[in-house]
Structure formats: C-alpha cells, structure tokens
Amino acid sequence: MCTCGAPLLVNYDLEGVKKNLSPEDLKERTNTLWRYHELLPVEDEDNMVSLGEGMTPLVSLPQLGKDMSMKNLLMKDEGLIPTGTFKARGAAVGVSKAKEVGVKELAMPTNGNAGAAWALYASRAGLQSTVVMPDDAPKITRNEVASSGANLYLVNGLISDAGKIVGKAVKDHDLYDASTLKEPYRIEGKKTMGLEIAEQLNWKMPDVILYPTGGGVGLIGIYKALNELKEIGWVVGKLPRLVAVQATGCAPIVKAWEEGKSDSEFWNESETLAFGINVPKALGDFLVLDAIYKTDGCAIAIDDESMVQEQEKVARLEGSFVCPEGAAAFVATRRLREQGWIQEEETVVVLNTGAGIKYPDTVQVNPEMLEKDDVIRRVENVINK
Questions:
Q1: Which of 25, 37, 282, 329 is the most exposed place for a label (fewest CB within 10 A)?
Q2: Which domains are present in the chain?
Q3: Residue pair 239/205 in contact by the 8 Å Cβ criterion
C-alpha cells in the first residue's frame, strides 16, 4: 500500500505481452490460473505456490434461466476451487509473491474464508501466518486456520476491529500485511476470474457480470483483467456491465452508488448471514464504484431471507449448492431482470464465490422434511416395495 494510504495496483508491459503472447499459446498450458503467468506478478516459476487453483467451470443454467426469463444465464462456480472459495486465487498469487520477495510471516484480518485460504497457502509455501477473525466466524474456517499451523486470534467484533489489531501487530512485529488491498497481489489472483470468463466465452465478453461484494477485490480484479485483455487486443467492444451485490444488512457500496458518490461511508451495526460480504467499509470502495460507473453497472442489496430462498431454488432447479453470497447474486439477477435492467437475450455471468457446504449454519431446511416419523415411514415404504 502507498504511504498515503491508498491501494497500489500492478502494471505490466502490455505491449510486450501483446507481441509475445497469443490466445493460441494458452491451449497447451496447464488448466490453472498460472496459465496467464505473463499477466501475473510472480517472476520465477519456482516461487509459484499452487494447489491446482483456477479454471473453474462456467456452467449454463437453463432451468434457472427459464425461471428468470433469461436465455443465457451462466455461473462461474468458484466452489470447486481449493479451500472451497474464490479466496484461493488471491492467496495463491499473494503468497507466491510474498515468498518471492522474502517474506517469512504474514498477518491479516478476515471474515473466515480468506484467512483459511491464506493460512493454508502460507503453510504450503513454508511461511508463518497470523490470522485475526471475528469470534462468530464459521467454525469450519476457524478450524482450517488452526489446522494450517497459523496463529489464530478471535476478536469480539467485526472484521474492521480485527483489522485494527492486525495493523498494530504489523507495526509492532514487522509482519507482512496481507490485509485486503494493503498489498497489491491479491487483486492479481482474483482478476484471473475475468481472464477465465473471457477465454471460456471464446474471447467474447458477456453483457453483465454480477459479483457478491464485500471488500470488492474480485470486482476490481475482473474490471482490471478485462481492460488488460482489451489493451492487448484479445477482446473488443464494450466492457460488461458490472454489478456489485451486497446484503441489506451491510450495503455501503449500494448506498454510495445510489447517492452518486465516489466512496462509501462506514456501515454501522452491519449484520448478514452472508458473512463474506459483511464488510462495513472497504478500503478499495472508490475502485469498486469507479468500475461500476465506467461500465454503466449498478449496485443492489439483497435481504437474508431472499438469499436462503434462492439458495434452495438454485439447488432444486440446477443441482448446485451455492454459498449465501452466490445466492445473493442470483437474487440480484432475478430482480434486475424483473426490472428490465437485464434483457432476456443478454449473456449474464453470476459469480458463485464458494461452496455451500462451507456454510452449514446458514442452511435452512423445512422442518417438515426432518420429521422423524415421516422419514421412517418413507424408508419403510421403500423397503416394502
């Protein structure tokens, strides 16, 4: 991060990339995010820390699309990536670059999934890590961090409170600050979602991309990726309209967008079951809003109840158990289609940022489905047949 407090972004010799790399060159490469290494910051491949992350499927959703009156609804499913969420992308590139510059120990605040990913990748790289998260973060992510050998600390508060603790630890113990946008390489890992979407669509850009937005690094990264691809001539035309999806219980970006502002205000008493987007104030909020404005996109907030209902509907219609944040993005798609903001013929990509099984406490099941007597009766009926 710049001494002025603003995030730093990585620039590349895109003219050189344009001269020395073509889409054809990618066909013989491994199906991980490192296939785009010319557009990533790690210089020595010996420093690449990988668990096979990247190239997640871009899945057609015809039944859900029909339910929404949409012909070209697609899901970029990040639930199939190592550690179960898209956070593995930022961790892979961030940890790799940290290793390359000689970092021995990193520290970061997290709502859960990012801390788990960075702790596990740090372990893979032979680095020590310190992770601070709210004490109500999901048990599964706490277990991942603890199992990795990281130093885990729980705080009675929000991720913003965890961030203050990390900031002091970084200063007092000279640790590498891996907080969101405090280092420039997490974005580079996240941007590979945009590179993959473009490649999977045969270098044609979709009309709309919806992204569950907490810190907003993925949206910033996708916007950066598509601009880089446009500069090297691999894609042409107008960029897709980018949509930041938040929760009604924590919607600082939405409020700022509705008011036409360039940055957001701290969201007091934030609360949502989609803990991955429970970020009261994103350090890169101005970058998120800039990407929305420049692509004629929008920001929309979704209530928790609607997320749960949509999570069930996606599973029932398409057989995909998405995370609550992903479900929020699908609700947003549905509402924007109902409003006419999304047209029936448009190609729409929804980011599902994690596997639903990582969120056991958010799953809502109809109690009638779990009635013991009814379950026994159904089993007996099957046996008798």
A1: 25
A2: 58-84+187-362 (3.40.50.1100), 86-185 (3.40.50.1100)
A3: yes
